[in-house]
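Objective 1b. Sequence-to-structure analysis of Protein ARV.
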Amino acid sequence: MYWNYYRNLKRSKKIEKEEYLTSRSVAVAGRRRKLRQPSKLLCKMEIKDGNESAKEISFRCVQCGFSVTTLYIQYSPGNIRLMKCGNCKAIADEYIECELMILVIDLILHKIRAYRHLFYNRFSCETLHNEGLLWKLSLGFLILDAYQMLVVCTTQDEKSLSASFASFLGLSGKVLTGVFFGNLIFLGIILFGTRRFLNAKIGDSRCKHILLSILVSSYFKIFLIAMMVWEFPSSVVFIINMFVLSSNALALLVITDAVMIRCIWVCFAAHAMKFLVTQGLGAYRKLVLW
């Protein structure tokens, strides 16, 4: 009798153990199936252009510029899989896993992959419609441009003048007038050249995208801040302007998908007219004061 009781107890414990292992394996399999489902997908962005219907603007492959709908799939926090481009079969955007400093270095080296990542895959629809960001970038651009004009276009006589209120007003009026009209002509030529020679449609959202690309690609003007601390020759300003011109041309190339030589000529014409307008206004102001 005791033997039968012991055998039944052992059999019941074995059944309970098998049921526990079965339920645990089912739970683990359920969690694995849950992890296989992507928790976050980078999908297409939508943007409205004037009175037109909403248009889908997909991300871009940084290698060939082909449109892709998804850059990566995230299965869990810290576990992502980069997607490949359907055209060149390469990874669509490897900058997703790179540090910000690597992106900055590639921007300075004028790599078109970095510009594609910045203007298509980093800037979202909310960025294009962020009026505050555009105003802040425009204000910073104008301040640096005003300091550049103050360094280049100010003569030695004007620098040696006593710090009187009249001389301060005259110099401020000269700088502000040159900056306002110079950048107005600059932006007008950029938009006209983009529409006329680069065959790009100009709408409300397109203008914001071009303006944002021009402002961001003028990041070399930040090096003008060093001239506030250390004394540099005026030729440094010319070198900075050449870097800004080449960066603007590359930004237009990425935005419009046009020919590189046309983008260079459009940017060169805009920068040349801006320089001529600022110099002409300075010479005219001297004649009037004389």
